[in-house]
Amino acid sequence: MPRGRYSLHDPHDHTPLGEEHFQCAPGPSGWRYVSRLTTPAGDQRGSVDLALDDLGRPIRLEIHAGGWQVRGAALDGVTWVRTDPTGTHATEGNARAHAFTGTSPAFLVATARLLRLTPSSAARVRLVALTDPVLAPRTVDQSWALLDSEAHATDNGPLTVEEYQVSDLDTGEQHTVHIAGDVVLAAPGIELEDLESPPSVFR
């Protein structure tokens, strides 16, 4: 069960956003990721709990940030309920999308699991992005391409690192994501600072 810590920063001006302390593991029905987010000062600022089924679809998502909460799942596309900080108002949403995305590295692993690309292949995907700081939902269209998959020798055996090119189809903006198993090694705004055990290998 990988357990570790990511540092998060603004991908444009590199302002530190804090850290994400996580643990994740494959299970009998898919994969689960749990994390807590802290500010640069170390204060609690949110959490992520994401469970995927064996096909990479989100069967349960609960995310907290800025006092807001979103619970969602893959249902008629994706469906969610967003609750305000007072807990008095809840709004439901639904979109013809494949999954969720956001600032957490968990969503990058989840999208890679959903697409299951082979080297030199690409696919389009529609996602509902839950944007900080109030988890406002918006639909985004992306193209993912698996540029390279390379095995690196480690003390625990070979570690396969996959390099993806992710393109925002609305803006044309492109960036690169490196993933090993269920851990993001590098992506815009994300740096892996600490990892206590090797990434899990998916079946």
Structure description:
It comes from Streptomyces malaysiense. This is Glycolipid-binding domain-containing protein. By secondary structure, the protein is mainly β. The chain has one domain. The chain is 5% helix and 63% strand. The chain is built from one helix and 15 strands; from the N terminus they run βββββββββαββββββ. The protein has a 15-stranded mixed sheet, with helices on one face. It starts with a strand and ends in an 8-residue tail after the last strand. The mean pLDDT is 94.
The percentage helix is under 10%
* Rg calculated over all Cα atoms: 16 Å
> Mean of residue pLDDT?
94
Query: Beta-sheet strand percentage?
Result: over 45%
Strand order of the largest sheet: 8-7-6-5-4-3-2-1-15-14-13-12-11-10-9
Compute the number of structural domains. Answer: 1
Taking the sheet with the most strands, its summary is: 15 strands, mixed
Order of helices and strands: EEEEEEEEEHEEEEEE
- The strand count comes to 15
**What gap, in angstroms, lies between the N and C termini?**
15 Å
The quaternary organization reads as single chain
Tally of helical segments: 1
Organism: Streptomyces malaysiense
Protein name: Glycolipid-binding domain-containing protein
